[in-house]
Amino acid sequence: MTTKPHDIAPDTTHGEFWDTFYSAEDRVWSGRPNAALVREVTGLTPGHALDLGCGEGADAIWLARQGWRVTAVDVSQVALDRGAGHAASEGVGDRIEWQPHDLSVSFPAGVFDLVSTYFLHSWLELPRERILRSAAAAVAPGGVLLITGHAGFPSWATDPDPDIHFPTPEEVLAGLDLAEGEWDVLVSEVHEEKMTDPEGKPATRIDNTVKVRRR
After folding, report:
1. Can you tell me the distance from the alpha carbon of 195 to that of 192, in angstroms, rounded to the nearest whole number?
2. Matching SUPFAM superfamilies, A to Z (predicted)?
3. How far apart are CA 1 and CA 121, in angstroms?
4. Is CATH 3.40.50.150 the right assignment for the domain spanning 14-21+34-214?
5. For 96-143, how does the pLDDT look when each residue is reduced to its tens digit (9 = 90+)?
């Protein structure tokens, strides 16, 4: 996310935008799970996980391979169908339920032992704090909420949009409005992730992670 696209029609829905985004290529993402997911979830007892904004399903598939039952949610049906295909080819299709939701309008029902979301950012208007509060409300007693977001632009960005604000971990926690005495903050940090730029060269990006557990 560097420069805002200039060709977004004012009445474009989230589903239309992201279906177009995913339809542009046969595979958009690497197929590898997010590093923060692997780092923070390894060691947790598998249960029922909710993956919000699952994209092409790499995180959901990794969770399923670790023994989790997963509800994977995205606004793009193109991404969901692609994720379901990848899960079937990995032999874990029966452990993942794929649900279409525009999270600004609807939210999956139920409570979960793990609720995770990665890079819940959009060029379209998105009630991010409200969605994350809904995510917290969906965490079962003893369960974990894991949120990773961008803390800055990638190192190759030469003309970043100056109007974009990336929330700090402190701002994410404040926006969750967690009830005092009901949660433990396990992680609240900024970290550098190594990656490759669009030309395949080594690059970095600064992200932040918040991990809280309901008592």
Report:
1. 10
2. S-adenosyl-L-methionine-dependent methyltransferases (SSF53335)
3. 9
4. yes
5. 999 999 999 999 999 999 999 998 887 678 899 999 999 999 999 999
- Burial label for 152, CB within 10 Å (0-12, 13-18, 19+), is middle
* Residue 117 near residue 71 (C-beta atoms within 8 A): no
Residue among 37, 23, 149, 121 at smallest CA distance from 78 = 23
The burial of 118, by beta-carbon neighbours within 10 Å (0-12 exposed, 13-18 middle, 19 or more buried), is given as: buried
Residue 25 dihedral angles phi and psi, to the nearest 5°: -140, 155
Domain boundaries, the chain: 14-21+34-214
CA neighbor of 37 nearest in space, from 18, 53, 19? 53
| Cβ atoms 99, 60 nearer than 8 A | no
Query: What does the block give as tokens for 100?
Result: 């279409």
For residue 61, give both structure tokens. 């598939």
